[in-house]
Amino acid sequence: MSEEKDDDVISEEVLYEKIDHYLLTFGTDRSLMCVSELDGFLTALGCSVQELEPDIWLNAIWGADEDQPVWESTEQEDEFLSLVLIMYMETMNSLLFGDFYPVYLEQEVDGEYSILVEEWCVGFIRGAKLIGLGIGGDREFFDEVLAPVRLFGTEAGWEKLESMVAAEVTFWRETLEPSILRLVKHYHPEMQAGVKNKETRVLH
Question: Along the chain (204 residues), what's the average pLDDT of each consecutive run of 10 residues?
């Protein structure tokens, strides 16, 4: 008896393409603009001690109340919610089961490819502000673990990067993922989060 293909299973590539389409089509200047930003945003939510109601963080994807999309149909809205919830579960599972793979963008210039972490960090900062990450507790610890994401995800950080030599930028880039994992384990010591083989999911 042959196995039937499960048509309900969406590929990672299609998932990201569809989410990007919705974010670009319905987003404003205050919205998350791409899958990389969304992944950073969702990862920050995974650091929260208390789970936020979906309505809160789903609305925050778009920005303020006036930025919420006017859907063309109920089916369209339902599809977007379904896609984002799939990505949310994938992000949470990656933290829980020790296969943390941030979704970064890739840039090609004159045949040379480089990974961009800025969009992911911008999204993480958005999520961190939403859940009040780093407010109270050990200020020194939070300043240390959030330093890389603040460097690559804020305008103040970008100004600092411009004055750094390549070796310094590389150093901070390499501390980004270990710092995020320290943060996750700080809030959730039961999690087995880790970076396997130092791989990342890259959007071309």
Answer: 54 94 95 97 88 91 94 96 95 82 85 89 96 83 95 97 96 94 84 54 62
57, 130 Cβ separation under 8 angstroms: yes
Residues contacting 151, CB < 8 A, separation 6+: 121, 157, 160, 161, 172
Single out the residue of 120, 139, 135, 137 nearest to residue 180, CA to CA: 120
Task: For residues 62 and 85, give the distance between their C-alpha atoms in angstroms, rounded to a whole number.
Answer: 15
Structure tokens at 159: 């100004």
Q: Say which DSSP state 19 is in.
A: H
Residue 145: phi, psi to the nearest 5? -75, -25
- Find, among 97, 113, 104, 108, the residue nearest to 173 by Cα: 104
203: left (phi over 0), alpha (psi -120 to 50) or beta: beta
DSSP per position, 131-175: HTTTSSS-HHHHHHHHHHHHHHHSHHHHHHHHTS-HHHHHHHHHH
- Residue type, position 93, single letter: N
